[in-house]
Amino acid sequence: MMMVSNGHLRVDLGMIAEMVTPGSRVLDVGCGEGALIAWLGRHKNVDGRGIELSMAGVAAAVAQGMSVIQGDADTDLADYPDGAFDYVILSQTLQATYEPRAVLNNMLRIGRHAIVSFPNFGHWRIRYDLLVKGRMPMTDSLSYQWYETPNIHFCTILDFLILCRELGIRVERSIALDRQGNVLPAFGGRWLSNLFAEQGLFLLTRT
Amino acid sequence: MSDAEPPDSSAPRNPLGLTVVLGRDRPIRLDCGVEMGPVTVGYQTYGTLNADRSNAILMCHALTGDQYVADPHPITGKPGWWNELVGPGRVFDTDRYFLICSNVLGGCMGTTGPKDVNPATGKPWGLSFPVITIGDMVQVQARLLDHLGIDQVFCVVGGSMGGMQVLEWCASYPERVFSAIPIATAARHSAQNIAFNEVGRQAIAADPDWKDGDYLAHGTLPQRGLAVARMAAHITYLSEPALHRKFGRNLQGREAFSYGFEADFQVESYLRHQGSTFVERFDANSYLYITRAMDYFDLAAEHGGILSNAFRGTKTRFCVISFTSDWLFPTPESRAVVHALNAVAANVSFVEVCSDKGHDAFLLDEPVLHATLTGFLDGAAEHRGLPRAKGVSS
């Protein structure tokens, strides 16, 4: 369940929602049952659309009156015209795409802004698992065995920032989150964030 | 605008359905170039049109369907094709919506078609009936809405050939369609589907009783040909798993093979039954004309070869629905429509319903289909400012 009983969003989705300007056009890629676009529609008068891979998620979202199509980031973003949205959101999905670079480019082609969050593979516990235990890391946010994980393109926060620079994408905001999605203090720059953040959340803009 | 009196929804419904004569003053120009008029249209309505005429849902029937969406069929007595979906509190809630369904142009259930008398000759049209298109069917429906005084429908919905009409509506009269639900359909008829239709038409033409389409004048009916056409088509509406579950290799009323060509298998008996009941209610020439209209349908070709051009600038809210086991209008056909709609940033939902019942799943009890329809209609109704379902608080 994405929504808790009192109608508030999951903490990290709340962070994303806070970045969205009221009245804007939003595409949520990997929208699940549409909790985020439903919330944005109700509270920020947003024209929200969704793309979701799982049929159950799509059916549930459409049955609640939301505009959601079955599809995925790799294949379906290419269809949309330039500038169709104000925000294109990709939450916790980038690492599961086949071509993260093409996905990012498409997001910033069809949207003025992109909001991206992903699990940070540079977190100290992951480094510890590999360095000391010699095992593929398994954490709360990365809870799959290596042979069954849908996550095929992990990156660290630093990797992501370097890619953004290569693609000419401006990082407007970057937020380091712990495993619950709470904001970590920006205590020591990117290197420390890359060590202590379990997730990174970024607001990106075309340059 | 109106050809006749505005509708009186409080009037008792004629059990044989409503009819109206359209195009008396202004003939209907068909795609083939023929001007046609007057045209009689048979239709049914359910529910009540609201004061600002904003709650109408136009339902478009499939190839062999008709306007009896939720009435016993006047010939067969069987329940309407969406009987379970129409009524107070149901998916198409007659407490909230005004439902309209008309028999298509070229049909044989009250709307002008080849079995009717051509007023110019005093004889049945037969093969002198002009070849019609999906666009022509939709044009006649638009005239019916003019007659009913409805500028914009809240929703247009239909499956299969009905879905083709839905897409045509959205392309031809975008401002008259607030929301649209094309189900188990395609933006063009595939080569395989044209091939199946041709088999059906050839079966009819091969029946000596067809008399080159002039069977009414000869007092014959090409029932065998039409039955074979229906049998072949009916297979395409099902799926291999559905057929196997229903019939397997079970024998019909016997313990062993007859070593002859009786209907040994239940599936043969079933198909023969489908064929023989169909001929009681359907006109063979109508079957030729309507299948032809489907074959000619190619929405992209009508718009410079690019499907998304058909929807450029659309404000309509779309809900595209397909079924996993439908091999007549498989999901990629629906996905092509969705891609074209995305290309113009249209408001679109797309659900592929998991079902093993084949193409006919849209007519059957599929809870996910019903939940999808209900949710989409509720969401659209909220945007249109129509009241919510009874018992639902805001």
| Order of neighbouring strands in the sheet with most strands of chain A | 3-2-1-4-5-7-6
Give the low-pLDDT segments of chain A: 1-6
Number of E strands of chain A: 7
H/E topology pattern of chain A: HEHEHEHEHEHHEHE
Overall pLDDT of chain B? 94
Q: Report the sheet-strand fraction of chain A.
A: 15-25%
Largest sheet of chain B: 8 strands, mixed
- Please give the count of helices of chain B: 10
- Going by CATH, the architecture of chain A would be 3-Layer(aba) Sandwich
| Tally of distinct domains of chain A | 1
Largest interface: A-B, 22 and 27 residues
Total number of beta strands of chain B: 14
> Which CATH class of the largest domain in chain B applies here?
Alpha Beta
Specify the number of helices of chain A.
Answer: 8
Shape of chain A: globular
Element-level helix/strand string of chain B: EEEEEEEEEEHEHEHHHHHHEHEH
Structure class of chain A: alpha/beta
Structural class of chain B: alpha/beta
Describe the secondary structure blueprint for this structure.
The complex is a heterodimer of chains A (about 210) and B (about 400).
Chain A: H1 11-19, E1 25-29, H2 35-44, E2 47-52, H3 55-63, E3 67-70, H4 73-76, E4 85-91, H5 100-110, E5 111-119, H6 124-133, H7 157-166, E6 169-177, H8 189-196, E7 199-206
Parallel strand pairs in A: 1-2, 1-4, 2-3, 4-5
Antiparallel strand pairs in A: 5-7, 6-7
Chain B: E1 18-22, E2 28-29, E3 35-36, E4 39-46, E5 56-60, E6 86-87, E7 92-93, E8 98-102, E9 117-118, E10 123-124, H1 134-148, E11 153-159, H2 161-172, E12 177-183, H3 191-205, H4 215-218, H5 223-237, H6 240-247, H7 266-281, H8 284-296, E13 317-323, H9 331-343, E14 347-353, H10 367-384
Parallel strand pairs in B: 5-8, 5-11, 6-7, 11-12, 12-13, 13-14
Antiparallel strand pairs in B: 1-4, 2-3, 4-8, 9-10
Helix pairs in contact in B: 1-2, 3-5, 3-8, 5-7
